[in-house]
Amino acid sequence: MKWLSVLPQQCILLMTCFLMALEAVPIDIDKTKVKGEGHVEGEKVENPDTGLYYDEYLRQVIDVLETDKHFREKLQTADIEEIKSGKLSRELDLVSHHVRTRLDELKRQEVARLRMLIKAKMDSVQDTGIDHQALLKQFEHLNHQNPDTFEPKDLDMLIKAATSDLENYDKTRHEEFKKYEMMKEHERREYLKTLDEEKRQREESKFEEMKKKHGDHPKVHHPGSKDQLKEVWEEADGLDPNEFDPKTFFKLHDVNNDGFLDEQELEALFTKELEKVYDPKNEEDDMVEMEEERLRMREHVMNEVDINKDRLVTLEEFLRATEKKEFLEPDSWETLDQQQLFTEDELKEFESHISQQEDELRKKAEDLQKQKEELQRQHDQLQAQKQELQQVVKQMEQKKLQQGNPPAGPAGELKFQPPGEHKVGDAPKHPAGGDQPLPPGHVQEPAARTDQVHP
Fold it and tell me: Which helix (H) or strand (E) holds 407?
């Protein structure tokens, strides 16, 4: 179950307008000894979704800026502090007119997209009188006061927003995982309440047995230690463990050859360790927990190795970490099953919150049911009135028939002609012929008999 989003490959530099493919110095590696297919030179590496709601806009801005030679050169010589402080944003004034025009177009499209989202949200709650300009203030990755052109301030805001959001991304993932674990325990306890004593004991025994089975796994090496990296070198790369070389290891696992080990490249190093603990075929192993374990391992290595905290590991930082005592003699690594993920008080607070939400949903459901019943009552009342009116009309028609008056047609005309009356089209014709009717008061002479004998 992959509900945890994958972090971007370039969280600050490469995902905040410094996603520039720096060429790495090639090294001599016998690729025939390496298992699997390596990265093909010149092949474009697809970056994973950052999880940011403006991910597409961010990527499009980066792609456009990459086409400007001047900006690209400035970027390659800038350090992380210059980028985060906004100094690099001022270089936007020097890019080509074509690039600025394309950036203007991207910003107008993004503003239109945000306005569409706002309208859709407001329409869902049947709100009227939307002030799009005021609501755009909630989006901090662009300058809403100027919705038409892309200025240095826009680049600065985009960099700072992405940096801040990505720095908080891991924290948010941890919080979501904690809620996930508490919900699992809450649902388990609620299920136990529905069972009788005998079944409840069986379920409890099964639960404890599964916990024990999950915890029975081989030793997990400390992430980033020599033992852990040598295991990858030997089992994943297919190389001789006695020939382990940190510099070669770094170059080999810098998949996109950009000179850094980014977060995804680091997380890929922990797959062998995670497979010791988690197997998707086992009922007792939760794949959501495996992704949380991977995230914890990557965070730990970043904290130990990433000196300048730019969320990217350079070759220099990596080699320096291999010289530390912790690299050769690390502490034991505690997996999630060996830790307390939440306290009983935290679970009670969570359950209280769940109960409050359920009460609110129940109340909304009751209100909707009352509205439904009221609408049904009004419908039934209207149907009764309709039937009553139809009955009255029917009685009136019957009364007219009893009085000798013919019932009227739909347009008020008589449905039949009484005896002695003629229709308008049947008026007596003029004796001289033609279609002209006789004048008023004229009495038509009887027609001559055909059998009469004239003298």
Answer: none
Quickly state the pLDDT bin for 191 (edges 50, 70, 90): very high
Whole-number pLDDT of residue 31 = 38
CB 12 within 8 Å of CB 310: yes
For 14-70, the pLDDT digits (tens) are 444 334 333 333 333 443 344 444 444 444 445 555 567 777 888 888 888 888 888
Q: State which H helix or E strand residue 32 sits in.
A: none
By percentage, how much of the chain surpasses pLDDT 90? Answer: 41
- The answer to whether 12 and 302 are in contact (CB under 8 A) is no
The residues that bridge with 437 in the sheet, in sequence order, are 429
Q: Residues for the chain: how many in total?
A: 455
Interacting residues of 433 by C-beta distance below 8 A, sequence separation 6+: none
Residue 244: exposed, middle, or buried by beta-carbon count in 10 A (0-12, 13-18, 19+)? Answer: middle
34 or 184: which carries more pLDDT confidence?
Answer: 184
- Which ranges in 125-151 belong to alpha helices (H)? 132-135
pLDDT digits (tens, 9 = 90+) for 270-310: 999 999 999 999 999 999 999 999 999 999 999 999 988 87
Q: How far, in Å, CA of 295 to CA of 270, rounded?
A: 10
Q: Rounded distance, CA 66 to CA 96, Å?
A: 12
Q: Which residues of 134-168 are buried (b: 16+ CB within 10 A; e: fewer)?
A: ebbeebebbbbeebeebbeebbbbbbbbbbebbee
DSSP string covering 158-227, please?
A: HHHHHHHHHHTHHHHHHHHHHHHHHHHHHHHHHHHHTS-HHHHHHHHHHHHHHHHHHH--PPPPPTTSHH
SS3 116: helix
How many Cβ atoms sit within 10 Å of the Cβ of residue 133?
A: 11
